[in-house]
């Protein structure tokens, strides 16, 4: 879909990622002749994509003019989780000019959720964040046909199957839109502005309500034929394990995820195995992954064991993926990344123990730097790429 090698696309991406650049340097970086570069710049100035930005420092001879992305450019980035909506409106450099976050339930269906997205973006407009949007990027928590811009049979999103999300957003906001899976946008965000900055081959593991993997190979996201590459939450790790939402038994996600951890914490509290969890259950009536994290920080043995067990299961699946794809980095993100270093240490030790030494000799396994912002950052990158590709 993305014609990233077109000169105008490469030029706009450079300005997005690096800020104002002189005409002379742009010519060098893009390997364009002066007349060709001037024609491209002129076209993009006329189209309202770039603007003059003063004079560059002299490189000897005539001083060159700096060009930058037009200050009026605006992208909307939407990250839909199972239980949250995250929205940012950014400028051309992908710096947020407005941000909104609220709880929701993805199961309330596409009409209700997308209506709320529209209301929040309308609020951003009335608050003065933008006059018009240049593109919208949205991530959803399920498989997506990237080509068609629709979710495909998403297990935790009833009513969303084949719903025309891209078409709807394009019509509503009068600009290009792009739809992707939530884990893919997190991987793209982490590569743009996080710990995987400019790393070409890495795996981004999201551990949240569910578990997924964004596969970044040779500088691009690998989505698979039908958009469900990286759906590692449904790899079976225990044939006698609990039933999963997908209908199979013993999937990774059924054994360790936000929902699984809450279930196991409740069982431990009721069985009297964990004083920390029993106390929290008595005062709050429900338990979440955060309670387990807090219990572990206080030294509660059961909480530590629950996190370690989860880390071991994730690690065993990742060890297989490392032997298969030989990435140069693994990034752990999503809500359960807040379980922190107990989780990370367990994942690391299993991956290093079980994968080939050659594949792990130089393999950092690290926590996401962007945290909750990984998704919106990636959605903004995708939105900008889509707008730049259509720039004329």
Automatic annotation (TrEMBL):
Pfam families: MarR_2 (PF12802), ROK (PF00480)
Gene Ontology molecular function, alphabetical: kinase activity
Superkingdom, natural source: Bacteria
Keyword Kinase carried by entry: yes
Record keywords, A-Z: Kinase, Transferase
Start and end residues of each HTH marR-type domain: 2-52
Stored PANTHER family: GLUCOKINASE, ROK (REPRESSOR, ORF, KINASE) FAMILY
Family: Belongs to the ROK (NagC/XylR) family.
Record-given protein name: Sugar kinase
Organism: Winogradskya consettensis
Lineage per the UniProt record: Bacteria, Bacillati, Actinomycetota, Actinomycetes, Micromonosporales
